[in-house]
Specification:
Elements (H helix, E strand, L loop, with lengths): L3 E11 L8 E12 L6 E5 L6 H8 L7 E6 L2 E2 L2 H4 L2 E4 L11 H13 L4 H12 L22 H13 L5 E4 L8 H14 L4 E6 L4 H5 L3 E5 L5 E6 H10 L10 H10 L7 H19 L20 H17 L2 H22 L6 H22 L3 H16 L5 H31 L5 H28 L3 H17 L12 H6 L4 H14 L19 H9 L14 H7 L7 H27 L5
Parallel strand pairs: 3-8, 3-9, 6-7, 7-8
Antiparallel strand pairs: 1-2, 1-4, 4-5, 9-10
Adenosine-5'-triphosphate (ATP) binds next to α1.
Length: 609
Amino acid sequence: MAPVLAWDGVTAVVPATKKAPAKTILSSATGVVRAGAGGGLCAVLGPSGSGKTTLLTILAGHEPPASGRLTLDGAPYDARTAARVGFVPQVDQLFSTLTVLETLEFAQEMRNGATQAKQLCHDVLAQVGLERVADQRVGDPASLRRRGLSGGERKRLSVALELVHRPPALVLDEPTSGLDSAAALSLCSCLKKLAADQVVVASLHQPSAAAFRQFDVLTLLGAGGTTLYFGPRDGALAHFEKAGLAVPPYTNPAEHYLDFAAHQKLASLDPLAKDVAADARALCAAAAKAPAARGGGEAGAPAAARRSLLTQFSLLLGRARAHNARNPAFLHAMMGRTLTLALVVASLYCNVDASQKGAQDRLGAMYFILTCQVMASSGSIRTFIAERDIVGHEVRGGLYDLRAYYVARSLAESLVQLGFALLFGVLCYGAIGLAPTAAQLAVFLATLSLVTLGAESWVVMIGAAMPDDRSAGVVSPVGLSLFLASGGFFVNTNSVPALFRLLNHANLFVYGFGALAVNEFSGLALHCDASELVGPPPLPPPQRAIARLVGVRWPDPRCPVERGEQVLATMALDGLTPAQNLAALGAIIVAYRLLGFLALRRRFRPRGW
Ligand SMILES: Nc1ncnc2c1ncn2[C@@H]1O[C@H](COP(=O)(O)OP(=O)(O)OP(=O)(O)O)[C@@H](O)[C@H]1O
Ligand SMILES: [Mg+2]
């Protein structure tokens, strides 16, 4: 049975805000498209702002309508049905560092396995005319230096990604925008071929007459998201002729329709629009009686037919590693940052001794190292959010499971961050001359590694929860500054207010500093200069002899602080052993990661189905 996509009375409303009332942006859109030669390719036409993207986003299952009913093969939309609809959004979502072929191979291997992957990908590239740039990087259109594919090529690659998996219904938002008329025509003929066994709905901005002729069905939207026409493309000519809007000779019908839809020559259309709605509704009712959703196998296999989690994980890990390795500017910046900060630490704290001042320097050095590491690792929040939107598109499209992505991304990112953290740690440790045993060095490096992972987890948690990079860029440093201030160096953790004490349970600085300080100061003997000695002044020799005779022990002058343990006790850092501090850091990482995962899952879930 050929797939059937039907939508009936679909309305979209932007909810009211304090400043503006609710606004209907799509009003009772109704239509039905059945795959098959001569019927499966539907054009959504309308002037800018008429609700094309809104309708397509709803048809793709990414947003639920305010009211109305959608069915695929007679099955009402739910999260599973929605995942069976492929979607090419108006804004491309592609990884900039992969080549065209790699991007396609990744999708192909994820969907169908590696068998004949290369050949299939080359076939698809030929279909969309991208063979010439198969080995070119996708690139970033916003960056002049890293620009890769042209706008039209990016669009065709996005379409190609959907061609490798052939979902039962494919929705494309302006697939021909940015293409010259020949390329647009070739893409439309390619869509026409696909429409033989899958439903294809595409919005078009300014189709040429030839491209428009490829389409079987037309939905014409007018201002305010009203449906001016739904039905066979050919039927539109006679339909509008009735309203005195016949297509003038030598005019592209699509242009003519867009022209009157945009210019509100619509009074005469009202009764016709009612006819259209009645016809479309009758078709929808017929479609609803179609047999319920089919299983997979042929073109149109459900999106849920994915590879095992382990395979997804290894493919995603490969992509993440390639992405990191192909970003040399990022790796050079990380190396530059590590060496510069190590140099700063070395200049400030070189060879600290065990004097009274040395104790203060040691504490300062450790807190400074922690701060550098946390701040540096948390700087990747904008990158994470940029990647989040691409991943959201892929996860919603059923390409892979969020769990596989989450673990693979965490691993790939952590390996890079840990490499630089260990280098930074070893350089600082040697330059400062911290505790000499190998066991203490190991605890120092373990602490730095866990703090780095914690900061990276913080990035993921905030990045997943915040709506965009600007708000994340504000919230993340504010949260970290709060943790930094109450972390035990600038203020004694016993004297912070109750709220801060509660927040400190999730504070990387508290446990990182605790572990480093206890590791460094336990068993450390401190000395001081003669000028720093405290206690009663020494007795002159005659009085000293008398005191000894009568058995009075005159206290010797001593250093204000003689043992590292005293420093720990004064700073309230002696509550936990290094192992307990490390365990607490581990727990914080797990909590941050878990919250980050839940926030991402919530964000990527098709809303409201
Ligand atoms: N979240 C929103 N809040 C407020 N207005 C919105 C929102 N989403 C869409 N709109 C409005 O709804 C209307 C339809 O938007 P839509 O993106 O669907 O138009 P379109 O037909 O795809 O336009 P274009 O051809 O320019 O892409 C526009 O006027 C837009 O400003
Ligand atoms: Mg749009």
